[in-house]
Amino acid sequence: MTDEGPRSGWRVRPRLRSVLLLVNVIILLLPMGGIGVLRLYETELLRQTEAELVAQAAVLRSAYENALAREGAGEGYGVPADPEILAPSGDIQPIAARLDRAVDEVLPEAPDPEPTEMPSDPMALAAGAMVRPVMQDARKTTLSGMRIVDSRGTVVASSGGEMAMSLAQRIEVRRALRGEPVSLMRTRVSTSPRPPVWSVSRGNRVRVFVALPVRRGDRIWGAVIVSRTPVDVPKALYAYRRQLVAGAIGLLLVVLLVSILTSLTIVKPVRGLIAQTERIARGEEAPLEVGKGATLELAQLSEAFTRMAATLEARGSYIRQFAANVSHEFKTPLTSIRGTVELMRDHLDEMASEERDRFLGNLEQDAQRLDQLVGRLLELARADVARPGEAGCDAMVVVRSVAARHGVSATGPEAAPVRMAEDLFATVVGNLVENALEHGGDVVEVSVEAAGGLTVVRVTDNGPGISAGNLARVFDRFFTTARSTGGSGLGLAIVKALVDGHGGEVSATSRPGRTQFVIKMV
Fold first, then answer.
1. Burial class of 7 by CB neighbour count within 10 A (0 to 12, 13 to 18, 19+)
2. Residue ranges of the chain with pLDDT lower than 50?
3. Nearest-CA neighbor of 79 among 224, 210, 216, 226?
């Protein structure tokens, strides 16, 4: 494709300032839309609390009214309702939630109850005593403050305290005793720090109050006052965090789409630069040359840079980690060898033969340790580059050979093919068996199953088991719990590298008395 090819597909191009203006407008609208949604959500939380309080107050009102009727309250009981307040007609008397933080006034904190010299009505006290246990029990679940006042505004039942105190000075109580249902908000003052979003406590600085009159005909028998702090927006958002994360991902996708469209419109990719960066991603050095191209090349350029960065980062990370692990593993035996040589050089003539033999034995053990590490590292390097090929083997033949060499039992079918060279598969099974013998109990079993083109090898021992923390790391390179006895921490890492490289799976499960490694391969 020539440089003119991509250009011919973009006859009409928007100006850069037009694209930037459009993008800025979209970015501006996103947070503005979010603010609007949060405002609507806050109002919905407020009204949800109001609706719940209306329902609770309606139930309490009915219970209290029935209790009063059982105590003998009749048509002449109570005080007259305000004639200007019309009671709803019919059997259905809904009370709609209507509070709005942006419109309705938030009143000051509720004043404290006042003492009263007038005794409460005896029938009201008796009826309140019947309802009070229900209120106190319901408060444990609803978290609402509940009070019932008589026709003079004196508390005759409460979910908390304040018995025989007067609430007549509160505006919601006065209006309810006139016969009007009331919903309002008051400032909530708290000296405690704002609770965390996952706690039951609520940090909203507003409290919702609902007062319903206890009305029989044109007479007011009292009022029910229920209050609760609504859930604030942060706590509600935490409760729906999973849905919000999904929404945020969707919003992120929208932003990415806008960014991609912007990139395709305003950037001039360079085909020559793409070619050079691809060579760098392959490990070749080359100068960067800027050429000409259309917007299609930008995606190619971005992809090439991404691959290059990923390749370099993966190589660098692997080399750093590998070098650190190797230096750590070699440091201990080398330090021991150096110390032993210095000690024998300075005191060889003074040593007894037993001491010389002991130090020479230490040197031999350290040399064997280094030799084992070198061998394991060579096996690991070979495993890292191993890939499936044409070579395969019979898993059962390899398993029987390894089991016989280590003196463990082996069971399985006559044949179980796997797509791995015989020597590599012998390394896999041998490392698992050696690991089981070293860390397991006195019984190690190897079983093979073959069905549907899948071969499963299980190595099981009756040892003490592997802890949950160590089980998650058993396949990590250089991780071992037997370093003092010569363990290198590479055996299971080699197993995983070989199995993964051949498209298989290896896993481990463990409990006290039973540890099992499972290999699944085609």
1. middle
2. 1-11, 13, 16, 200, 286-298
3. 216
Q: Which of 441, 431, 446 is nearest to 487 (CA)?
A: 431
CB 308: neighbour CB atoms within 10 A?
17
Contact 121, 159 (CB under 8 A): no
| Structure tokens that stand for 13 in this block | 């191009």
Tell me the CATH number for domain 388-521: 3.30.565.10
d(CA 447, CA 451): 14
Tokens 């019309």 correspond to 86
Q: How far is CA 481 from CA 168, 361, 440, 474, 485, in A?
A: 75, 24, 12, 9, 9
The 10s digit of each residue's pLDDT in 69-121 is 998 888 788 899 888 876 655 566 788 888 888 788 999 998 889 888 888 88
Q: What distance in Å separates the CA atoms of residue 517 and residue 407, rounded to the nearest whole number?
A: 18
List the end-to-end C-alpha distance of the chain, in Å, as a whole number: 43
CATH 3.30.450.20 domain position(s) in the chain: 19-85+95-242
Reduced to 3 DSSP states, what percent helix, strand and coil does the chain have, rounded to the nearest 5? Answer: 50, 15, 35
Tell me what pLDDT residue 175 has: 93
pLDDT tens by residue, 149-179: 999 999 999 988 788 899 999 999 999 999 9
User: Distance between CA atoms of 469 and 489, rounded to whole angstroms?
Assistant: 16
- Strand pairing class (393-394; 417-418): antiparallel
* CA distance linking residue 37 with residue 450, whole number of Å: 58
What was the pLDDT predicted at 323? Answer: 60
pTM of the model: 0.44
Supply the pLDDT for residue 5.
42
- 242 token code pair: 């999973």
Q: How far apart are CA 164 and CA 141, in angstroms?
A: 25
What does CATH list as the number for 19-85+95-242? 3.30.450.20
Q: State how far the Cα of 183 lies from the Cα of 187, in Å rounded to an integer.
A: 14
Quote the tokens at residue 370.
Answer: 């280094």
